[in-house]
Every structure is written in structure tokens, then in C-alpha cells.
Design a protein that fits this description.
Number of strands: 3
Order of helices and strands: HEHHEEHHH
Oligomer: single chain
Distance between the termini: 42 Å
Shape: globular
Strand content: 5-15%
Radius of gyration: 17 Å
Strand order of the largest sheet: 1-3-2
Number of domains: 1
């Protein structure tokens, strides 16, 4: 499980930093996946006011960060292909937030080895701080993906620097 998690973190890091080719399918996939994740976590926490408030606060922060991120993204057109470069500082900050929270949760859950995997996952999506971080990241990726799609379609794939 640890190598799979490390690979996913590395691939997410590469997506946050460096040039990306405009791939509408991947962007739509991110938009749908992260939106669904926020909805499911929200539905799971309907009876937990603190977790639901944390999710809404994280979602608001994620949307605001996505607008900042879209504004800081550089769009280019090379050989009739659209390439965009996300802001490095924002990418590193989001990755640090994710890694820090995952590391902290694994450290805390290591104290309770008798919990089943289902109980550990439930504990993660009911913790207000974890739900806040998920809200920030998921809404950031969903809105950022939509922003890139919108920006590239609006300009007819003719992006000028």
C-alpha cells in the first residue's frame, strides 16, 4: 500500500509542477472525480455539524485558491498543442498540505492497530481537520480543471502567452 501511495503522490506532484499538455479527458475526469468526492464526504457527514462546516470552509478556500491558481497559470501554444504551466509555489504548498495531513493521520492511526481498515477510513473522513484539507484539495482540483477547460475552449485552443 505504501508504494502505491508514494506513486500517487509523485504523480500528483508532477501534475502540480511543470508543463502539462491540454488533455480534456483528464481534466473532465478530475472535475467529475473530485466533485463526486466532496459530495460523498458531505453526504457522509450530514449529521456531523463540525465536519460538514469544515468541509464547506475547505471547499470555499479551495475555490478561492483555484481562481488564484488559474490566474497564475501560464498558457502557451507549441506546434498547435496547448500547454499550460501551473504555478510552482501554489503546487508545492498544496502538496505539502496533503503530505503533512496524510503523514499526521497515519502517525495517529498507528496508535490504534486494532482498528479495521473501514474504521480507519471512517475516522479519517469524520475528522474535521482532515475533511477541511480534503475540501481544499478536492475543490481546488475540480475548479482548476474547469478553469483550464474553460480557458482553452473559450480561446479555441489558440492560446497566446
Amino acid at each position: 500500500m505504501v508504494p502505491l501511495a508514494a506513486w500517487r503522490l509523485y504523480s500528483r506532484y508532477r501534475k502540480l509542477i511543470g508543463k502539462q499538455f491540454y488533455a480534456p479527458r483528464k481534466l473532465w475526469g478530475s472535475l467529475i472525480t473530485f466533485t463526486t468526492l466532496v459530495i460523498l464526504i458531505g453526504l457522509h457527514n450530514l449529521d456531523r455539524n463540525d465536519a460538514l462546516a469544515a468541509l464547506l470552509a475547505g471547499a470555499t478556500a479551495g475555490v478561492c485558491l483555484a481562481f488564484v491558481g488559474i490566474g497564475l497559470t501560464r498558457f502557451e501554444c507549441e506546434n498547435d498543442e496547448v500547454i499550460y504551466t501551473p504555478n510552482v509555489g501554489l503546487g508545492i504548498a498544496l502538496m505539502s498540505l496533503l503530505c503533512g495531513r496524510i503523514g499526521y493521520r497515519f502517525f495517529r492511526l498507528a496508535d490504534a492497530p486494532s482498528l479495521s481498515m473501514q474504521a480507519m477510513l471512517a475516522a479519517m473522513v469524520e475528522n474535521p481537520v482532515t475533511v477541511f484539507v480534503i475540501g481544499v484539495l478536492a475543490c481546488y482540483y475540480a475548479v482548476y480543471s474547469f478553469g483550464v477547460l474553460y480557458r482553452c475552449t473559450r480561446s479555441g485552443s489558440r492560446i497566446r502567452p
